[in-house]
Amino acid sequence: MPELEGIYTIWLRENKRFIRYRSRILTSVVTPLLWLLIFGTGLGSAVRFGGGLPGGYIAFIFPGIIGQTILFTAVFSGVSVIIDRQYGFLKEILVAPITRPSIVFGKALGISTTALIQGLILLLLSFVVGIQMTLSIFLMSTVVILLISIGLAGLGLLIASFTDSMEGFNLILSFIVLPIFLLSGALFPVGGLPSWLKIAVYLDPLTYGVDALRAIILNYSVLPLYVDVSIISLFALIMLLLSAFVFSRREQGLM
Amino acid sequence: MDYIIETKNITKKYDNFTAVDSVNLKVPKNSVYGILGPNGAGKTTLISMLCTILHPTMGTAIVNGYDVLKNPKEVRKSIGIVFQSRALDDILTGREHLQMHASLYGVPKDIRKKRIEEILDLISLGKKADEFVKTYSGGMKRRLEIGRGLIHHPKVLFLDEPTLGLDPQTRESIWKYIQELNQNQDVTVLMTTHYMEEADKLCDEVSIINQGHIITTDSPSNLKRELKADTITVRVDKPDKFMEEAKKLDFIKEIFLMDSEIKLMVERGENLVAEVVNFANSNQIFVNSIELEHPNLEDVFIKYTGTTISER
Q1: How many structural domains comprise chain B?
Q2: What's the domain count of chain A?
Q3: In this structure, are B212 and B250 located in the same domain?
Q4: Co-location of B112 and B240 in the same domain
Q5: Chain B interface mutation, best of A81, A86, A92, A98, highest count of B Cβ atoms under 10 Å
Q6: Can you give the CATH number for the domain in which B96 is found?
Q7: B259 and B172 assigned to the same domain
Q8: Are B100 and A87 within 8 A, CB to CB?
Q9: Chain B CB within 8 Å of residue A9 CB
Q10: pTM, whole model, 2 decimals?
Q11: Domain range holding B194?
């Protein structure tokens, strides 16, 4: 199966790159811890959190912060195809006798693996915020994290297909990544929001990812778990197909 | 003659600009074929279409028996490519690049290791093979790219400006490497260049391309011969007498005295050197030295386009 081998090869490169940039692994653990410990403790002490969760506000945002880590890793790794294009490495992959969808799948799977590694490290650190971790929470979270990250990696790849240089990086951050993060309910409950904000929140795919993680880790969620999982699965499928389609269509200006 | 690449009126248009205009190329098997032209002549566009990276606007090409439009995947399996710009990942090692390429191109697992060792031998990376590419010199990176292009034993190796931006010494070593490659491996090399010297030294056949058109195609030596302008430079003890007597020789197209040197413009100078010396002797003129100069490809280019290649 040459296509499978191609997908595996691209997956392997993505993971080698992740492991070799040590600073990335370090920041991927430190940044969420800063959010949890400083922002979580700070805001948690200032407001009286009405969720009735045993761990309080800091436990409430823990699944949200996992979602945030996955979001940043997946979208930015997807967008990093722009760098591959600029440094010419993308051409080497594009002229290989494998199909464009295989390239996209390999890349998306590679990215979701690196996002999963970060997510799992955070899950192992759940004791910091006083959450009891069990094997079933761990396994179910793995599935949900994989689904979210495939979808978000697809989104990143899709953005990369339309963008030629990293100059647009700040635009991507301000107009795509930050809104997805802030609207996802990672930092606040989405139950009692004004309706204009509620609409935006429910249009955000990460909302369902965070809600699913909350359902699994805290047994606390707005929607039933199966609804959340169905929606993020659908999102992953659509993003994967869409990015494969757009990526395949784009043929000019590669050399 | 067996042709490994044949293009049929291949054309690429961008809006109002025609980058490649109805080009018909025939590249003989196992040759080193050069596409020579200034920057912006359409060389890279042409190669990109042959590599199936770009779709031709019109026409098509047959590479190793496969149509680039109908069988792009088979074409890709038959070719190796070294791009003009670097296509390496800084954070992978040389060996990893080869491994990655071998699996992307479906080199069978059981022979993969052997192939990689062969290529590493060929491109003599030595211990650097297991270090990150970011520590490589320019020449090593280029050798790695050429070696990578060969790992799946392609029938055609495309080299797009293989020595662009390399220092003269590295350039020489890449040339030597390309020559050895063509002699020792069953591979046709199609290269683009805008260095006259490079085309002259390496290519069996050269097509000169300008503004998307192929202007002429021939071996470098024939192209130069066409100019009919070899120069024989002689130094004699009695230049004035030589000038006087030489007017009787009808193979001399032009003759002039520069300082103490006499320059004769002739066709096929290599057949005439002995004759010139005998002629001088028979007239009791002593020849101190005689030199034959062929025109270079730069002269050929000027003849066909009216400009030097570097003027654009």
Answers
A1: 2
A2: 1
A3: no
A4: no
A5: A92
A6: 3.40.50.300
A7: no
A8: no
A9: yes
A10: 0.81
A11: 3-224
CB-based contact A6 B54, cutoff 8 Å: no
**What local confidence, expressed as pLDDT, does residue B311 receive?**
54
Residue A8 sits at the chain B interface (C-beta within 8 Å): yes
Which residues constitute the domain of residue A147?
A: 2-249
CB contact under 8 A, B83 and A88: yes
DSSP-derived pairing of the beta strands B58-63 and B3-14: antiparallel
B45 within a domain of the structure (yes/no) = yes
Whole-angstrom distance, CA of residue B76 vs CA of residue B263: 52
- Put simply, whether B112 touches A (Cβ < 8 Å) is no
Which ipTM did the prediction report?
0.86
Is B149 within the bounds of a domain?
yes
Contact criterion met (CB < 8 Å) for B103 and A98: no
**Interaxial angle between packed helices A100-124 and A22-34, expressed in degrees from 0 to 180 and rounded to the nearest 10:** 50
- Give pLDDT tens digits for A151-195: 999 999 998 888 877 788 888 888 999 999 999 999 998 888 899
Residues of B in contact with A251 (CB under 8 A): 53-55
Please state at what angle helix B138-150 crosses helix B94-104, rounded to 10 degrees: 20
Q: Residues of B with CB below 8 A from A248's CB? A: none
Chain B contact for A34, CB < 8 A?
no
Residue from the list A8, A97, A251 with its beta carbon closest to the beta carbon of B55? A251
Cα B52 to the center of its chain, rounded Å = 22
pLDDT, tens digit (0-9, with 9 covering 90-100), for B215-251: 889 888 888 777 767 888 889 888 888 888 888 888 8
Minimum CA–CA partner of A84 in chain B: B89
Give which of A163, A171, A141, A117 is closest to A63, Cα–Cα: A141
List the beta bridge partners of residue B258: B261
Percent pLDDT > 70 in chain B is: 97
**Contacts with A139 (C-beta within 8 Å, 6 or more apart), sequence order:** none
Distance of CA B33 to the CA centre of its chain: 6
Confidence of residue A216 (pLDDT cuts 50, 70, 90): very high
Inter-chain contact A95–B76, Cβ cutoff 8 Å?
yes
- CB neighbours of B227 closer than 8 A, spacing ≥ 6? B295, B299, B300, B303
